[in-house]
Amino acid sequence: MSVDMIVTTTDTVPGHKVTTTHGIVRGYTELSTESRERAEKRMKKEARAMGADAIVAVRFMTGSDSDGADEVLAYGTAVSLG
Question: Measuring CA to CA, how many Å separate 78 from each of 27, 30, 34?
Answer without folding.
Answer: 12, 23, 23
